[in-house]
Design brief:
With about 180 residues, the chain is α+β, with helices and mostly antiparallel strands. The chain has six helices and seven strands. It has one domain: 3-Layer(aba) Sandwich (Trna Endonuclease, Chain: A, domain 1), CATH 3.40.1350.
Length: about 180
Protein backbone atom coordinates (compact mmCIF):
# COMPACT_ATOMS: atom_id res chain seq x y z
CA UNK A 1 0.00 0.00 0.00
CA UNK A 2 1.38 3.38 -1.02
CA UNK A 3 1.58 6.26 1.42
CA UNK A 4 0.75 9.83 0.36
CA UNK A 5 4.39 10.82 -0.11
CA UNK A 6 5.00 7.89 -2.48
CA UNK A 7 1.82 8.64 -4.43
CA UNK A 8 2.90 12.28 -4.73
CA UNK A 9 6.30 11.27 -6.05
CA UNK A 10 4.66 9.02 -8.65
CA UNK A 11 2.51 11.96 -9.83
CA UNK A 12 5.48 14.35 -9.93
CA UNK A 13 7.49 11.82 -11.93
CA UNK A 14 4.64 11.27 -14.40
CA UNK A 15 4.29 15.05 -14.91
CA UNK A 16 8.08 15.38 -15.32
CA UNK A 17 8.05 12.75 -18.08
CA UNK A 18 5.19 14.52 -19.90
CA UNK A 19 7.01 17.86 -19.75
CA UNK A 20 10.27 16.28 -20.94
CA UNK A 21 8.39 14.76 -23.92
CA UNK A 22 7.44 18.32 -24.87
CA UNK A 23 11.07 19.45 -24.94
CA UNK A 24 11.06 21.26 -21.61
CA UNK A 25 13.62 20.95 -18.80
CA UNK A 26 12.32 19.99 -15.36
CA UNK A 27 13.79 19.99 -11.86
CA UNK A 28 11.95 18.33 -8.98
CA UNK A 29 12.63 20.72 -6.11
CA UNK A 30 11.39 18.21 -3.55
CA UNK A 31 14.66 16.35 -4.16
CA UNK A 32 16.62 19.27 -2.73
CA UNK A 33 14.09 20.81 -0.34
CA UNK A 34 11.93 18.51 1.74
CA UNK A 35 8.40 19.20 0.47
CA UNK A 36 8.59 22.81 -0.60
CA UNK A 37 4.97 23.81 0.05
CA UNK A 38 4.32 26.18 -2.86
CA UNK A 39 5.66 24.10 -5.78
CA UNK A 40 7.03 20.69 -6.68
CA UNK A 41 8.69 21.27 -10.04
CA UNK A 42 10.56 24.00 -11.85
CA UNK A 43 9.92 23.81 -15.58
CA UNK A 44 12.17 25.68 -18.02
CA UNK A 45 12.35 26.46 -21.69
CA UNK A 46 16.07 26.05 -22.44
CA UNK A 47 15.74 28.06 -25.67
CA UNK A 48 14.67 31.33 -24.03
CA UNK A 49 15.48 30.78 -20.35
CA UNK A 50 11.90 31.30 -19.13
CA UNK A 51 10.77 29.20 -16.18
CA UNK A 52 7.74 28.53 -14.01
CA UNK A 53 7.14 26.72 -10.76
CA UNK A 54 4.47 24.00 -10.87
CA UNK A 55 2.46 22.45 -8.06
CA UNK A 56 1.46 18.79 -8.59
CA UNK A 57 -1.43 17.19 -6.71
CA UNK A 58 -1.99 13.46 -7.15
CA UNK A 59 -4.98 11.37 -6.13
CA UNK A 60 -6.73 8.06 -6.71
CA UNK A 61 -10.28 9.29 -6.01
CA UNK A 62 -12.48 11.88 -7.70
CA UNK A 63 -11.66 14.40 -4.98
CA UNK A 64 -8.01 15.47 -4.90
CA UNK A 65 -6.88 17.35 -1.80
CA UNK A 66 -5.23 20.74 -2.28
CA UNK A 67 -3.32 21.02 1.00
CA UNK A 68 -5.46 23.98 2.11
CA UNK A 69 -7.75 24.12 5.13
CA UNK A 70 -10.73 26.45 4.99
CA UNK A 71 -12.06 28.69 7.71
CA UNK A 72 -15.68 28.09 8.71
CA UNK A 73 -16.73 31.19 6.73
CA UNK A 74 -15.26 29.75 3.50
CA UNK A 75 -12.12 31.86 3.34
CA UNK A 76 -8.76 30.18 2.83
CA UNK A 77 -5.93 31.97 4.62
CA UNK A 78 -2.92 33.00 2.53
CA UNK A 79 -4.19 31.32 -0.65
CA UNK A 80 -3.09 34.19 -2.92
CA UNK A 81 0.48 33.99 -1.58
CA UNK A 82 0.52 30.19 -1.64
CA UNK A 83 -0.36 29.70 -5.32
CA UNK A 84 2.70 30.87 -7.26
CA UNK A 85 2.29 29.11 -10.60
CA UNK A 86 0.25 26.58 -12.55
CA UNK A 87 -1.08 23.42 -10.91
CA UNK A 88 -1.30 19.96 -12.43
CA UNK A 89 -3.74 17.48 -10.93
CA UNK A 90 -2.84 13.85 -11.59
CA UNK A 91 -5.62 11.27 -11.33
CA UNK A 92 -4.50 7.66 -11.24
CA UNK A 93 -5.93 4.31 -10.21
CA UNK A 94 -4.48 2.81 -7.04
CA UNK A 95 -4.64 -0.62 -8.74
CA UNK A 96 -2.99 0.56 -11.97
CA UNK A 97 -0.35 3.21 -11.34
CA UNK A 98 0.76 3.29 -14.98
CA UNK A 99 -2.28 5.18 -16.30
CA UNK A 100 -2.75 8.87 -15.59
CA UNK A 101 -5.10 11.73 -16.34
CA UNK A 102 -3.46 15.18 -16.23
CA UNK A 103 -5.54 18.30 -15.54
CA UNK A 104 -3.57 21.53 -16.06
CA UNK A 105 -4.69 24.90 -14.69
CA UNK A 106 -3.00 28.28 -14.77
CA UNK A 107 -2.32 30.15 -11.54
CA UNK A 108 -5.39 32.31 -12.11
CA UNK A 109 -7.64 29.34 -12.92
CA UNK A 110 -6.69 27.31 -9.87
CA UNK A 111 -7.04 30.29 -7.55
CA UNK A 112 -10.55 31.00 -8.87
CA UNK A 113 -11.60 27.33 -8.89
CA UNK A 114 -10.44 26.65 -5.33
CA UNK A 115 -11.96 29.82 -3.87
CA UNK A 116 -15.31 29.55 -5.70
CA UNK A 117 -15.80 25.82 -5.10
CA UNK A 118 -14.81 26.11 -1.45
CA UNK A 119 -17.14 29.08 -0.92
CA UNK A 120 -19.94 26.95 -2.41
CA UNK A 121 -19.00 23.93 -0.30
CA UNK A 122 -18.99 25.94 2.93
CA UNK A 123 -21.93 28.30 2.34
CA UNK A 124 -24.07 26.65 -0.36
CA UNK A 125 -24.98 23.55 1.62
CA UNK A 126 -27.79 23.14 4.13
CA UNK A 127 -25.63 22.19 7.11
CA UNK A 128 -23.56 23.55 9.97
CA UNK A 129 -19.84 22.74 9.75
CA UNK A 130 -18.34 21.76 13.10
CA UNK A 131 -14.70 21.86 12.03
CA UNK A 132 -12.58 23.57 9.41
CA UNK A 133 -12.87 21.58 6.17
CA UNK A 134 -9.93 20.30 4.17
CA UNK A 135 -10.17 21.76 0.67
CA UNK A 136 -10.43 19.36 -2.24
CA UNK A 137 -11.03 19.69 -5.96
CA UNK A 138 -13.41 17.33 -7.71
CA UNK A 139 -12.33 15.83 -11.04
CA UNK A 140 -15.66 16.88 -12.57
CA UNK A 141 -14.79 20.51 -11.75
CA UNK A 142 -11.44 20.10 -13.52
CA UNK A 143 -13.47 18.98 -16.54
CA UNK A 144 -15.37 22.27 -16.39
CA UNK A 145 -18.54 20.78 -14.94
CA UNK A 146 -20.54 22.18 -12.05
CA UNK A 147 -22.64 20.52 -9.41
CA UNK A 148 -26.33 20.38 -10.23
CA UNK A 149 -29.11 20.77 -7.72
CA UNK A 150 -31.78 19.22 -9.91
CA UNK A 151 -33.15 16.37 -7.82
CA UNK A 152 -35.44 16.95 -4.86
CA UNK A 153 -32.79 15.57 -2.50
CA UNK A 154 -29.94 17.70 -3.91
CA UNK A 155 -32.10 20.84 -3.76
CA UNK A 156 -32.58 20.21 -0.05
CA UNK A 157 -28.85 19.56 0.46
CA UNK A 158 -27.22 22.29 -1.60
CA UNK A 159 -27.44 25.06 -4.16
CA UNK A 160 -26.14 24.56 -7.69
CA UNK A 161 -22.38 25.07 -8.12
CA UNK A 162 -21.63 27.00 -11.29
CA UNK A 163 -18.06 26.24 -12.29
CA UNK A 164 -16.09 29.32 -13.32
CA UNK A 165 -13.48 27.26 -15.20
CA UNK A 166 -15.73 26.82 -18.23
CA UNK A 167 -13.60 24.23 -20.05
CA UNK A 168 -12.06 20.81 -19.66
CA UNK A 169 -8.47 21.11 -18.41
CA UNK A 170 -7.56 17.52 -19.32
CA UNK A 171 -4.16 17.39 -21.07
CA UNK A 172 -3.99 21.16 -21.53
CA UNK A 173 -0.18 21.13 -21.74
CA UNK A 174 -0.47 24.19 -23.98
CA UNK A 175 -1.06 26.25 -20.82
CA UNK A 176 2.44 25.40 -19.56
CA UNK A 177 4.00 25.86 -22.99
CA UNK A 178 2.31 29.27 -23.38
CA UNK A 179 3.75 30.45 -20.06
CA UNK A 180 7.23 29.50 -21.25
CA UNK A 181 7.02 31.11 -24.70
CA UNK A 182 9.05 34.17 -25.59
Amino acid sequence: MLNNKQLGLIGETAVTLELLKRGLDVININCTYNNYQKADLICMNHENGKSTMIQVKTGTTNNILTGFVSELDGTIPFIEKSIIGPWIFVKTDKNNLSEFEFYILTKEEILELITSSNRWYVTGWNRQLKSKPIVGVNISWLKGEGEAATTAQSKIQHNEYKNSLGHNSLNRWDKIIDILKE
